[in-house]
Amino acid sequence: MRILIIGAGEVGYYLASRLSAEGHDVVVIDRNPEAIRRLEHLDVQLLQAAGSSPEALEEAGVGSASMVVAVTDSDEVNMVACLFTNALNPVATKIARIRDTNLSRFPHIMGRDFLDLSLVINPEQEVSKTVLKLLEVPGASDVVDLADGLVKLIGVRAAARSSLTGMTMSELGQVKLGNQFLVAAISRADQLIIPRGPDRIMAGDLVYLIIQPQVVAEVMELFGAKVFSLKRVVVVGGGVSGFALAKALEKMPVKTKLIERDSERCAFLAEKLDKVTVLNGDGTDKDLLREENIAETDALVVLTGDEEENILISLLGQQLGARQTITRISKTGYMPLVHAVGLERVVSPRMAAANAILQHIRRGKVVSVTQIKGEEAEVIEFVALETSDIVGCPLSGLKFPSGAIIGAIVRAGQVIVPKGETIIQPEDRVVILARREAIAKVEKALTVKLNHF
Fold it and tell me: pLDDT digits over 383-407, tens only?
């Protein structure tokens, strides 16, 4: 697939890296020479030009492109690029990052009669949605809703005191609630394992569960996680994400404080928020955090635009006794450092944008795509097609690609935890977790016969 990416920032860089590694024909356009130089080691075509220029689009081969993804920092450039793409290649899929929430009031501009966008991305708003999911399950490192909320993927640390620690996958089926969740992956010592029957859960493992929502708390307790109700939240950073999160928290029975450094922004926030206490202050000020009783806070959510400050504030919060921290990080290079210093709950605008875009790139009738564990794996939710050989055959008889696992099947609103004798039927919602190297084979398996595997 030929894909044009307009904008070589964090989102554009990540998409170019990921899609070129998967064998797509990628062209990246950016007018900034330094941004272009960052991508020179990738197997992509680079063009230093204005992405909103029809001449640049033509030079990049927009006429033969299957998709154009406009992710510059300018809403106007992104929209103009998609407008010219409409004129030069009306059948191309168009995706644009648009941050101005006021534009959502004009859906006809985004629709078929004008820009004809397949997807509008607002990464900052997606960050606030991701934070809310994490707050729903205090103590989980990842929370993903699947199949319209009928299934969740959660990441939980296996504690040494857990009765499940030391058990094999085969033995888990015999324990309480063992038939209502499935261990889809285990992260251990920077290695992501797709477990089989003899594999064991070890203390300290980050275990990814595909689970029904009504048993999440009970199963987390089985793994030794401390389950608690959410009563007090402190948000640091009153930008787009922080404001959106605070507005959402006003609808919940949670006492919320929002710390923002800029006094003018504080005045705006105080005017727009009714139930949230807005404080003008510096989140890196240890004395301020103490004054606001961080030790009694159930969640410290750090969403400023400064990556280094976010890490520092989160570490301060942990030191002062916050029960959990959630940290906004965009820069790719910071991810290993963040996990190494013990910040496990991380949200990323870049990741939020990439997840939405990958859904449109994956083959088959894909409903959603979510990356986990530092982008080492994807959770893919799709609708089973009658043309695929994964339909109509017991799972035990499938030669499914190595490095992937079928985690759940939803049929007529009922959740099925798959077993060897389970048979997938056409139109079933199916959840698959796959390591990065297995994704291409999984895509093929969703649409064609499996005898190649």
Answer: 888 877 788 889 888 877 888 899 9
Tokens of 407: 């985690």
The β-bridge relationship of strands 93-97 and 119-121 is: parallel
Query: Tokens at residue 369, please?
Result: 């795509």
Residues 6+ apart with CB under 8 A from 426: 384, 385, 386, 391
The residues with which 20 forms a beta bridge, in sequence order, are: none
Contact 331, 374 (CB under 8 A): no
- Calpha distance 204→186 (Å, rounded): 10
- Compute the radius of gyration of the chain from its Cα atoms: 23
Q: From CA 230, how far away is CA 256, in angstroms rounded?
A: 11
- CB-based burial, 344-361: b 16+ in 10 Å, e otherwise: bbbbbbbbbbbbbbbbbb
Mean pLDDT on 359-387: 80
Handedness of CA 375, 381, 385, 389 (dihedral sign): positive
Amino acid at 434: A
- 25 three-state secondary structure: strand
What's the one-letter identity of residue 234? V
- State how far the Cα of 368 lies from the Cα of 360, in Å rounded to an integer: 9
User: For strand 377-383 and strand 25-30, is the pairing parallel, antiparallel, or unpaired?
Assistant: unpaired
Q: Which two tokens stand for residue 385?
A: 């097609």
Distance of CA 92 to the CA centre of its chain: 25
Residue 152 Cα distances to 215, 280, 383, angstroms: 10, 37, 17
The sign one gets for the Cα dihedral 257, 258, 263, 268 is negative
pLDDT tens per residue across span 79-107:
999 999 988 999 999 999 988 877 767 76
Among the listed residues 372, 340, 336, the one whose alpha carbon sits nearest the alpha carbon of residue 354: 372
Torsion, Cα of 166, 170, 176, 180 (10° steps): 120
Could you identify the residue written with the tokens 């285990």? Answer: 186
pLDDT tens digits, 278-291: 999 999 999 999 99
Residue at 170: amino acid letter: S
**pTM for this predicted structure:** 0.83
Which phi and psi angles does 357 have, rounded to 5°? -70, -40
Those residues whose C-beta lies under 8 Å from the C-beta of residue 268, and which sit 6 or more positions away, are none
> For residue 303, which of 354, 359, 349 has the smallest C-alpha distance?
349
Query: Angle at CA 195, nearest 5°, toward 191 and 198?
Result: 120
The three-state (H, E, C) secondary structure of 147-194, written as one string: HHHCEEEEEEECCCCCCCCCCEHHHHCCCCCHHHEEEEEEEECCEEEC
Distances (CA, A) of 260 to 102, 239, 248: 23, 8, 17
CA 266 to chain CA mean position, Å: 29
